[in-house]
Design brief:
There is one protein chain. By secondary structure, the protein is α/β, with parallel strands linked by helices. The chain has a single domain, classed as TIM Barrel. It is 30% helix and 15% strand. The chain is built from 8 helices and 11 strands. It is globular and about 55 Å long.
Length: 293
């Protein structure tokens, strides 16, 4: 199995690098996915290093070593499994879940789910939350970059959330060619269905099909973060927003200067952090996070 570099540092399994405030420990199972998402380092035809997921390095560790490190860790609020769609991965992930359940730490799983029965199998293992990435919110771009039909994916998300309300999360990647209006309308639809949303900024990584595509502007990403916060908290709804002809957010139906700084922190499951997932050290982060002091 693998750990994100920041998680391994937090658990003292490596000794170099900054110590970050990692309330969630991120694990990864499998490599070189059977799917071929154009933006993903683990895609079937990606030429990126198999040690990467987005721009983060994920070193290998023995499963028992990780379990023991978690038993001795303090202040871990969540354990997240990133599950690559590869052969024999699920059995190893299930084994890991069985070994960490006694820690009584909430467990999240991020996996590509194709049926309600598959989702139920993960919940039956005792996980608290299931992450089902949408990533691309434009129908044509979804088919081009991710594969499959967006409408079918959303139907499955809503079916699962109807049975497991407030226990499903989906992910949106901002900057793949969609309009801001498309993003916030999707976010509204998800929260109306009791589905949480985690925001990512598109990150070009060498070796992927979209390695030459630029990241979104910070201004655009901040507008979507403000919108996400207002929708999530119920302070406003998309029906109160104003948009330009090309779908840029022009108003929120709420004073954006009243939005707290927490609106710009990493979103997703409770206590999600994902430091440096979208940006290089030393640059302004898309999603704010904290260093340990």
């Amino acid at each position: 199995m693998r750990l994100s570099y920041g998680s391994a540092r937090s658990l003292n399994l490596i000794s170099s690098g900054p110590v970050l405030e990692m309330k969630t420990i991120y694990t990864m199972f499998g490599e070189r996915c059977v799917f071929d998402c154009a933006y993903c380092t683990q895609a079937r035809t990606s030429k990126s290093s198999m040690d990467l997921l987005s721009r983060i390095v994920w070193p290998h560790f023995d499963l028992e070593m990780v379990v023991n490190a978690l038993k001795n860790a303090n202040d871990v609020k969540r354990i997240c499994l990133q599950v690559v769609s590869a052969p024999s991965v699920k059995a190893e992930a299930f084994e890991f879940i069985r070994k960490i359940k006694m820690l009584n730490v909430p467990i999240s799983v991020s996996a590509r789910i194709s049926s309600f029965e598959e989702a139920k199998a993960w919940f039956d293992q005792g996980i608290e939350r299931l992450g089902m990435a949408t990533d691309v919110v434009d129908e044509k771009l979804y088919e081009t970059y991710r594969g499959g039909k967006l409408e079918k994916h959303v139907e499955l998300l809503e079916k699962i959330a109807n049975v497991f309300p407030n226990r499903v999360t989906t992910h949106v990647i901002v900057g793949l060619g969609e309009s801001e209006k498309q993003v916030v309308e999707f976010i509204q639809k998800m929260y109306d269905s009791k589905i949480s949303v985690g925001l990512f900024a598109f990150t070009p990584v060498k070796g992927t099909k979209l390695e030459n595509k630029p990241s979104p502007s910070f201004e655009s990403y901040r507008r979507i973060q403000i919108s996400h916060y207002l929708i999530k908290t119920g302070l406003s709804k998309v029906c109160n927003f104003d948009f330009s002809k090309d779908g840029k957010i022009m108003g929120y139906g709420f004073d954006p200067t009243m939005v707290p700084v927490s609106a710009f922190e990493t979103s997703g499951c409770p206590n999600c952090t994902r430091p440096y997932y979208n940006e290089k050290p030393g640059k302004e982060p898309y999603n704010l996070f904290k260093m340990k002091v």
